[in-house]
Amino acid sequence: MVRAKAGTETSAEPQRLPPNGPVFDNNNKQQHTKERNKMKTITNAKLVTLSQAYKYMSGAMVLAILGWVIKCMTGNAAFPKPPIPLVASVPPDETAPLDMTTRMNNLDAAIKNAVGGGTIQTGLKNAALASVF
């Protein structure tokens, strides 16, 4: 006898599974397939990742890539108004972040000044490189 609740008894035998696993009738099989397909679509979702290799590139390489990005994004219909402007606004807007073209020009000047310079010029180049990121 199996107790269902305290004080009540029933003679129901526990349900046993067949040796090859549970048996699904056609309705349960369709439901199981739908659930599995639902999980498959979730697990097969494309994960977009961003390469962070630019952090280990030289300043000249970052400068070249930055110029390419500005060229490709200028006039691109997919990015009509990027969060960081590509060119300086006219008239200048103090509330807007520094535009990418100015950052590229600052990095170019800092790289040229750091070629024969000392620690101060190298520090300025690293600061300009950090502002690009």
Helix-strand string? EEHHHH
Query: End-to-end span in angstroms?
Result: 72 Å
The low-pLDDT segments are: none
Helix content bin: 40-55%
Radius of gyration: 32 Å
Q: What number is the mean pLDDT?
A: 77
**Largest sheet: spatial strand order:** 1-2
By oligomeric state, this entry counts as single chain
Structural class: mainly alpha
Quantity of strands, as a count: 2
Q: Shape from CA axes? A: elongated
Number of helices: 4
Largest sheet: 2 strands, antiparallel
How is this fold's topology laid out?
Elements: E1 2-3, E2 9-10, H1 26-43, H2 59-73, H3 100-114, H4 119-132
Antiparallel strand pairs: 1-2
Helix pairs in contact: 2-3, 3-4
Structure report:
This protein has 133 residues and is mainly alpha-helical. It has a domain at 53-132. The protein contains four helices and two strands. The protein has helices at 26-43, 59-73, 100-114, 119-132; strands at residues 2-3, 9-10. A two-stranded antiparallel sheet has the order 1-2. Strand 1 (2-3) and strand 2 (9-10) form a beta hairpin. Helix 2 runs antiparallel to helix 3 and helix 3 packs antiparallel against helix 4. The N and C termini lie far apart (72 Å). The relative contact order is 0.08.
Write a short abstract of this structure.
This protein is mostly helical. The chain contains 4 helices and 2 strands, in the order ββαααα.
